[in-house]
Amino acid sequence: MTETLDLDQNSIVAKLRAWDPQAVAEAHSFRGELTIVVPAGHLRRAADFLRTEPGLEFSLLSDITGVDRFPAEPRFELNYHLLSISQRARLRLRVRLPGQNPTAETVTSVWPTADWHEREVFDLFGVRFAGHPDLRRILLPEDWEGYPLRKDFPVEGSR
Amino acid sequence: MGTTVHTVTGAGRTMVLSMGPQHPSTHGVLRIVLELDGETVVKARPDVGYLHTGIEKSCEAKTYSQAITLTDRIDYLAPLSNNLCYCLAVEKLLGLEVPKRAQYIRVLLTELTRIASHLVWLGTHAMDLGALSMFLYTFREREDILKVFELVSGQRMMTSYFRIGGLALEPPAGWLDPVDRFVKIFPSRAQEYEDLLTQNRIWHARTKGVGYLSAEDAIAMGVTGPMLRAAGVAYDVRKAFPYSSYDEFDFDIPTRTESDCYARYLVRVAEMRESLRIVRQAMQKIPAEGPIQTEAPGIVPPQREKMKTEMEALIYHFKIFTEGFAPPPGEVYQTIESPRGELGFYVASDGSPKPWRVKVRAPSFVNLQALNKLVEGRLLADVVACIGTTDIVLGEVDR
Questions:
Q1: For residues B379 and B218, what is the distance between their CA atoms, to the nearest angstrom?
Q2: How far is CA B337 from CA B186, B240, B323, in A?
Q3: What percent of chain A is predicted at pLDDT more than 90?
Q4: How far is B228 from chain A (nearest CA, A)?
Q5: Which of A11, A68, B119, B317 could disulfide-link to B142, CB 3.0 to 4.6 Å?
Q6: Closest partner CB to A138 (pick from B48, B56, B329)
């Protein structure tokens, strides 16, 4: 099961907290993987800090994964899988979003690669990204109805 | 996937050309909306999704073991890499350790996969650029590798040979003989390819200086694999985050700094030779006997023989194939170095026998996003070279 970390023991968590005490809502580790939950309002600033801070340098955004925790609330999770090539470190940055009108800040200005990842999350989960330059469906046809990776979307399709 | 042609940036003198989705050099069903000024590319917008099959959604409706067959179909040129990454993810979730013999066999087969995948890339890329005969040579060697896959798994492509906790079945006696023959013949064959292309003036004209991508841009765009290494960044998951005992193998990471189509060609050819080095070492390391599956009752299916004599084995067999097994609640993100770059599987469990969420971090999907950077300001003919050098597999892009 998830073990709660001694937050000050971990240097990444410590650096984030030293930078902004509000930035870390939770931190936990499972199978050696560190997850830091940030409040949705802090996402873009925290992302920028993690990318540029010497000693962290999470310069590569590997992936953005949406997760639907239906029927729990907050319903949606966005997991940003970060990679620091120079530090050989990985980090999962997470924000939680409500089921009603889920919207997150875009991180395309921090990592340009987020463009397509955010479009994919929008396409399959219906999560919106404020400030995204071109938020359109990417995998599904433009006239598709619904968001297939939501848990209330049937596996066999809607029609 | 879009049905309309989207806005263009030009000032009245540009035209919009839809390349694909039925175009031979798009390697599948990729559509690129090209904005052209004469023959010069102003902007290229890849339009993907024509091959979207909802694999991630399907995984949520299957047990952990059943989902393996879907992973073959994501990157169909490197099915064993997908099998490996998914199995490693679930094994991490379960906290399982796989026996060394199985780990080495996995390494050997995934490195053969890398060679096979690069061979398809080399053959088709060269064919796109007019060197038609390359295709015949590279597919000859690829066939030798597919025969090895068929020998061990019964399948040439959709192998599903790696299973959670080890391998599907014991490889047949003498299975290393064709591998040995391949290892002996391949260096001369790789030399043949190089003889045809490396000093070829037409090849130089079509690839040198074409499709430049700076290291900063590559990292910003999330580009990994041979494309990143051709830009001078020596990042390889096998070295940075070793898995499946890769830390016990001796191999180099080929890099270049020119970051053009030619550099990517050189990197991939050098990678095939490095993979061959790993295959040779794996052949030495694989013990002749030993378990190929870990001891994990309730997760790894019992041996057929045991089921005939032991009641528990029969019960486990029944339970695994009717309801599956339930990993503890949690989530993992496992990455491997696939032939195309960093392949990642995010698997989340809610404690039930079916995954709550499976997400594939597909290297082709991410690398393709950088296409506009490669072709901007170049000639239309270079677009074909740039698509080829990105080495996309549309099954993986669209999933």
A1: 21
A2: 22, 10, 32
A3: 55
A4: 12
A5: B119
A6: B48
